[in-house]
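Weekly modeling sync, notes
Attendees: AB, CL, MP (scribe)

Item 1: holo prediction request
CL wants a bound-state model with iron/sulfur cluster before deciding which constructs to order. AB pointed out that an apo prediction alone won't tell us much about the pocket. Agreed to run with the ligand included and paste results into these notes for async review.

Input as submitted:
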Amino acid sequence: MEEDLIRKKVQLILGGDVRLPEGFRMPYRISRSTAGPGAGKRSAVFSFGGMRVKKGISYDPCEFMLVDGDGTLSLTRDGLPFIENVTIMPVVFHSPEQAFFNLDQRCRYNCRFCTSPLLKNDVTKYLTDEKIVDMIRDSMNEHDVISVALTSGVIGTAQETADRMISCVKAIRNAFPNIPIGVEPYVDSEGQIKALKDAGADEMKINLETPRTDIFEKVCPELDHTTILEMLRMSVKIFGRGKVTSNLIFGIGENDGDLEGCMDMLASFGCVATLRAIRVNDMNRENMRSVGIIPDVTEDRMIRLAHMQKRIFEKHGLTTLTFKTMCFECGCCDLVPFRDL
Ligand code: SF4
Ligand code: SF4
């Protein structure tokens, strides 16, 4: 991908919302996510030059503006031409071409950057296994659906939350024998990982969040860094190399060397780290400040880290292309090695 387009993707990811032209009708249903960087926002996926970005949308003045030139869409930034030939992609559930469900947005843990439990509207309340299977089936009539993914906050015990996800994976696997299924659970035992695999999950994501234990203790004070790392090692044994990933958030006090060492260590046992720039918004700003986190993400750093990530994967014979689910496949919030660069 051209360096210029890569930088534009980064500018979009890190920048403000997209203003829609007055009277513009979205060609597809508007997405309202309950997890990920856009949680709580009305958003749409914009695609250009083989890349895609999910952005908050508004009819109020914004950094970016969608321009409709007789059906040909483009984006301006601060009133100047920015990206030509933009298309709006349909969102299946949360993600383009992917039915990604948050089984429960509530969570007993209080990770300082996380906005899912802060959302007022409990939109995940009625998601039974049957309802999810029906929603996937219905969406297949409208869109290409290449995979399914499940995430969840933790309600009750980790085992209860895992059981709910295991049951849902089984229902999806029964209904759709061949579709790739990715899971992003909170797990604390080998038995839960095995049960998810036996239920039919193909890919696993368990989030280590940061390479640094001192930062982890501040941002995820109720979780345990060592346990998560142990769960990742077990997951690679059960799901296989190149089938397990882990979010590492950057811009919360770590340096490039911290990330390099951690990505290399994860890759050495077959885990492919997802790099995610911290996003600060009205919901998490105060929580971050209260623990002394001053977010720091620049365009140059995001590009530099993505190239570093790719070099590390190459060194260990890993690639993001072994994933058909979750963020590597979606590509809306990060620069993804082997896909964007
Ligand atoms: S475990 Fe932390 S990051 Fe995950 S949903 Fe709960 S609060 Fe958010
Ligand atoms: S990249 Fe991940 S967090 Fe972002 S929209 Fe896609 S699936 Fe959600």
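Recorded for review: The pocket of iron/sulfur cluster (ligand 1) is lined by residues 107, 109-111, 114, 116-117, 153-154, 186 (CB under 6 Å).
Action items: CL to compare against the apo run; MP to circulate these notes.
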